[in-house]
Design a protein that fits this description.
The chain has about 160 residues and is mainly α. It has five helices and no strands.
Length: about 160
């Protein structure tokens, strides 16, 4: 197996582990029940993507890297500490920055699916619908982006 491909898949798996923690904190600090539900649903979608990544790795005859996944969890925890210090509640800088991190991460996931679509014909065991996964990532990013822009107005507007 290509070591670079294995590392790339595991890097995205690790990043998604960190994202889950941020999403959970955003759900917990949401003022609005609909907003909390949005983040919980987003977390479920990220978990589904993590399952797909693990399956892709498995079809390459490998297993996910516990070490890299732990690094993703640790990085996410460090980010949450910084964001919590800034405040994750609506109107605070930490919430805006958390949403910005998520938007960037989801865009990275979109690019992952595009890259994997390019090499998928070379890996017959892969049967994932990468075009559909990309469209899901675009929808997720756009939904988070709407909230990020609103959070920017709330957190960054002059008093």
């Amino acid at each position: 197996m290509n070591k670079e491909l294995y590392r790339y898949l595991n890097d995205h798996l690790a990043g998604s582990a960190g994202a889950i923690g941020i999403i959970e904190k955003l759900a917990d600090t949401a003022d609005d029940p609909e907003e909390a539900a949005f983040f919980r649903e987003l977390g479920e979608k990220v978990e589904t993507d993590r399952t797909i990544l693990k399956d892709l790795i498995g079809k390459l005859g490998e297993s996910s890297s516990s070490l890299l996944e732990a690094a993703g969890v640790a990085t996410g925890a460090a980010s949450r500490i910084k964001l919590a210090w800034e405040g994750l509640e609506p109107g605070h800088l930490g919430r805006f920055e958390a949403l910005e991190l998520l938007a960037l991460g989801i865009q990275g996931k979109r690019l992952l699916w595009l890259a994997l679509a390019e090499i998928a014909p070379l890996i017959p065991a892969w049967t994932a619908n990468f075009a559909e996964l990309e469209l899901d990532a675009i929808a997720q990013r756009d939904s988070v982006e709407e909230r990020r822009v609103e959070a920017a107005r709330d957190a960054l507007s002059p008093s």
